[in-house]
Design brief:
By secondary structure, chain A is of the alpha+beta class. Chain A contains 29 helices and 17 strands. In chain A, α2 packs across α3. Chain B contains five helices and six strands. Chain B is globular. The chains are: A alpha+beta (717), B alpha+beta (142), C mainly beta (68).
């Protein structure tokens, strides 16, 4: 169907004209509120209180979400929101990774707030169109799109019956529809989910940017927590923003010269050092596939093992040499010299509705290669690319899909589920055909795919209640916590990282802390207090990126040549200073490193209290599956027997002549005890009581003793 | 391709070229706004674009292109001011000044060469084969 | 009695002719962003092969990655 016909199918439901407004020091000072139940569109003021306490980005998203919902709100209630906000630095073009959007919603996987960060042009173009944030509430009757025209100052809600649902087609259709011509396509950005998001809880959002060299609409993903599921449940097909005059100074910065200087210095650093360090410009985050394997950290077969001889077949150089187009600028926003948004072009699909077509695959990122590949026992680069493609276009989170599929595969191999239950699918590790069929089923809304699409948490419950599985064993091997699937690192040998995953606000992802090398390899965090300090600093430091609209990768996926001479190389002090300089340049705020942490602490603890308000967020919710802490099964123990035997000797237990079962038990008691002790130390360092509740005293210190927050925590002191 | 060639050994660091350049393009006698830069202290060293074209592939919006004469030019109307071309120029000849949100570079106009008292800079030709930019049609099999 | 050095503050067996390069080989330290110090003194990458480690030395091989 041609674009004209598709567009003719639109029915205008609401129209809202607005003044384009101005941006002052990174803020438009307005939020666009759209309710698709009653089709109201309104402008809301961004208050000084919001800027002071929440800064922007994820801070704004959580604040709006808090005000829109109640403790009993469910993810599929109309009052649940999807909030998209960039933050004050979002949209600058001189420093790498400054185009991020933060998306917040109540998650269908966790039933608590989720935040997911994503590249693409939507956040910056939204701001240039006059809005710091977009707050969407309600539920439409029929599929709608929301269009924000930042050239004309016009917002519309339109019924859109004929457009495709799958991301890679819908992105192209709407880009084509709303761009004046080929050159104008980069001025349009589209947010979509996909058909799989409709039938699972792990739906994601694709944020587009047009690639003028490939002449393709590229997609970046707000992957975690099922926000795409909320999107489709609201019957939103897409969001479109258009703004045609992007320049490098639209944020009306306080001191543009500082930003220019810092940005150019950083570009030069990438130019000089990237090829000697991480090769981000060649292969992006997938550079660490073989590194993780070498250090026994690459999840293999549902996190049972940390390495595999076949990793050779999916190492980064295979993708560089055979699949990923080299030498093309791949930033997901202007000015990103790290350029890690890699893509495989002219990739011929072997399965599914688009079989035989040649497509551009956005990826693989490390998480995709590990989650879709090694963790499912699949060591075939073309299989990984195909799964990667279908996850994106169907709107399925690669991490949740990978970890959930790996779990289902292990259950199948152990006989906990069988072919009768899977509808005939041979769900064995390494079986690409089955894995991709699960995805196609998620798209069609049928078969065992929709069961896997509910996530590990609900699969565990189902397998126990319906098929008589042992709940304790499933708890041990099901790699989820708070309802969210673990991201793709083996944390067994790093206690700090067990906490890095286990003590997070939104569930186990490495967005807050990745401490495995510091802890396990470098041994820089020998005491509980050291670990607790790291588990305070890094989560707070990394939260900060999401307040301002920055990407985290440029912080430490390259380091300055003289970083090794600094006091704390792991923190990359020069880059931290770069961020403080850029924020000064944009906002005029001169922050110290302490101020930076404090800004994050406010939002982090707000999110923590939000969790408590929703019935989670306490100590019991930080309990973690034993697979994340140590060897659950005989096979796991015996595969690394020497390591574990030596550890037992170190804690004063003689493994000689003992059965593996006995040794597993002793090791487990020890490790679980360590985890509890770490929890005590971390909670204390974070200003929480032993139940994981922020103390009122600490909230006062942060300036976060807002009455509505005190109300939630006062009886839990 | 046409380019501004140089012979450092003939340069007397008089600054005439910088002055002509900045006056021509920015109506101001200010070496910080000149496309050609001469090192002020020590041995003379002239820094100016040799039209190699590496910046062409760096630009996120394809604002930098080679024209029919082989000169690498910036379309400032569509430039988004990211300055990646400045950071990635192999010889640091892409220039930037905070009064402007776009970078600037030598376009081998030759005005400075005409005024150079010693012939240290002059318009020359070299083989088009030395162009560094990629052929996108080849890269994407079009 | 096995002779030892300290590697990242843990015991590591020493042998005649042990170099930084050798340690990195044994430990399969293949990560590209690594800082090496012997008794607090920074060792440059080009010197890994020739830097001999003596009994009792304190070797730090710090991997720089605090994020994924």
């Amino acid at each position: 169907m041609d674009i004209k016909r598709i567009k003719e199918g639109h029915k205008l439901l609401a129209e809202y004209k607005y003044e384009l407004g101005t941006i002052e020091r990174g803020y438009t000072n307005r939020t666009l509120y759209v309710n698709i139940s009653d089709n109201t569109i309104a402008s809301k003021a961004v208050t000084p209180m919001m800027k002071e306490k929440f800064v922007g980005g994820k801070g704004f998203g959580l604040w709006y979400l808090w005000n829109a919902t109640t403790p009993s709100t469910k993810w599929d209630d109309p009052e649940n929101e999807i909030v998209i906000a960039g933050g004050p630095a979002c949209g600058i073009t001189q420093y790498a990774g400054a185009g991020k959007s933060l998306v917040c919603s109540l998650s269908p996987l966790t039933d608590i707030p989720i935040d997911s960060n994503v590249g693409g042009f939507f956040g910056p173009l939204l701001k240039f169109s006059g809005w710091d944030a977009l707050e969407i509430q309600g539920k439409a009757e029929k599929d709608v799109i929301v269009v924000i025209d930042g050239n004309k100052g016009l917002v519309t809600i339109e019924e859109a019956p004929y457009e495709a649902v799958d991301g890679h087609i819908l992105g192209e259709q709407l880009t084509e529809m709303y761009a004046d011509n080929e050159d104008d396509k980069r001025n349009v950005s589209v947010v979509t989910a996909g058909s799989g998001a409709e039938h699972t809880r792990m739906g994601l959002l694709n944020f587009s940017f047009y690639d003028p060299r490939r002449k393709v609409t590229r997609l970046k993903q707000a992957g975690r927590g099922g926000i795409g599921t909320v999107f489709r449940n609201k019957k939103i097909k897409a969001l479109v923003v258009k703004f045609s005059n992007v320049k490098g100074d639209l944020n009306n910065a306080y001191d543009q010269a500082v930003i220019n200087k810092t940005g150019i210095k950083y570009h030069r650093e990438i130019h000089d050092l990237d090829h000697l360090q991480n090769n981000m410009r060649k292969i992006g985050t997938a550079n660490i596939i073989e590194v993780m394997d070498e250090y026994d950290l690459l999840p293999v077969m549902n996190f049972q093992y940390g390495s595999h001889p076949d990793t050779e077949k999916i190492k980064s150089t295979v993708f560089i040499e055979k699949y990923i187009t080299q030498g093309v600028q791949d930033g997901c926003w202007y000015g990103c010299s790290m350029s890690c948004a890699k893509a495989a072009d002219c990739f011929k699909l072997k399965t599914g509705p688009y079989k035989g077509q040649r497509v551009t695959v956005d990826g693989p990122e490390y998480e995709n290669a590990a989650g879709l590949g090694s963790n499912c026992g699949i060591f075939d680069p073309e299989a990984i690319l195909e799964l990667n493609f279908y996850c994106d276009t169907y709107g399925i989170d690669t991490i949740s899909f990978g970890t959930a599929t790996a779990f289902a595969m292990e259950c199948y191999e152990r006989g906990i589920i069988n072919k009768e239950i899977t509808g005939g699918l041979e769900l064995k590790f390494g079986n690409f055909e089955t894995a991709v069929e699960l995805l196609h089923q998620m798209s069609r809304g049928e078969g065992f795919g929709t069961v896997v699409g509910q996530g590990v948490h609900r699969m565990k419950k189902l397998f126990v209640e319906k098929y008589g599985a042992d709940p304790d064993f499933l708890f041990d091997i099901g790699m989820e916590q708070k309802g969210l699937e673990y991201s793709e690192y083996v944390s067994k040998e790093s206690l700090a990282q067990q906490g890095g995953y286990g003590f997070t606000n939104k569930g186990p992802q490495h967005d807050e802390a990745w401490l495995i090398f510091m802890d396990m390899v470098n041994n820089q965090l020998p005491t509980f207090e050291d670990k607790a300090e790291a588990l305070h600093y890094f989560p707070m430091f990394r939260t900060w990126f999401g307040l301002y609209g920055f990407c985290k990768l440029p912080w430490n996926d390259i380091v300055p040549a003289d970083n090794k001479y600094t006091d704390e190389p792991a923190k990359v002090p020069e880059h931290v200073q770069n961020y403080l300089d850029v924020v000064y340049g944009v906002t005029g705020k001169r922050l110290s490193t302490e101020d930076m942490i404090r800004e994050s602490e406010r939002v982090y603890n707000f999110q923590k209290i939000f969790n408590i308000r929703m019935g989670k967020g306490l100590r019991k919710n930080d309990k973690a599956p034993y697979r994340s802490m140590g060897p659950v099964t005989k096979e796991e123990y015996e595969s690394r027997q020497e390591r574990y035997d030596n550890q037992l000797k170190e804690i004063g237990y003689n493994p000689e002549g003992k059965t593996t079962e006995e040794k597993i038990k002793v090791l487990r008691e020890y490790r679980e005890d360590q985890y509890e002790k770490l929890m005590d130390a971390v909670y204390k360092r974070r200003g929480w009581n032993s139940n994981g509740v922020p103390t009122i005293e600490y909230l006062k210190e942060l300036g976060m003793d807002l009455p509505e927050l005190i109300e939630v925590v006062k009886d839990l002191q | 391709m046409k380019y501004l060639a140089k012979d450092d050994s003939k340069c007397i660091q008089c600054g005439t070229c910088e002055s002509i350049c900045s006056k021509t393009y920015y109506k101001e006698d200010n070496y910080e706004k000149s496309c050609i830069v001469v090192k002020k202290d020590g041995k003379p060293e002239i820094n100016v674009c040799n039209q190699c074209g590496e910046c062409i592939d760096i630009c996120p919006v394809i604002a930098i292109k080679r024209d029919k004469q082989g000169i690498v030019r910036i379309n400032k109307k569509i430039c988004v001011g990211c300055f990646m071309c400045v950071g990635f120029c192999p010889q640091l000849s892409m220039r930037q000044h905070d009064d402007y949100i776009e970078p600037f570079k030598c376009i081998a106009c030759g005005l400075c060469a005409k005024e150079c008292p010693t012939g240290a800079i002059y318009i020359a030709e070299r083989s088009d084969d030395e162009a560094k930019e990629m052929n996108l049609d080849q890269v994407f099999n079009r | 009695m096995v002779q030892i050095i300290k590697l990242n503050n843990r015991d590591f067996p020493w042998e005649e002719g042990l170099t930084i390069e050798k340690i990195m080989e044994i430990k399969r330290f293949t990560f590209p962003k690594i800082i090496v110090k012997v008794n607090g003194k920074l060792i440059e990458k080009e010197d890994y092969a020739t830097t001999v480690v003596n009994k009792g030395d304190n070797v730090e091989i710090i991997h720089l990655l605090a994020g994924g």
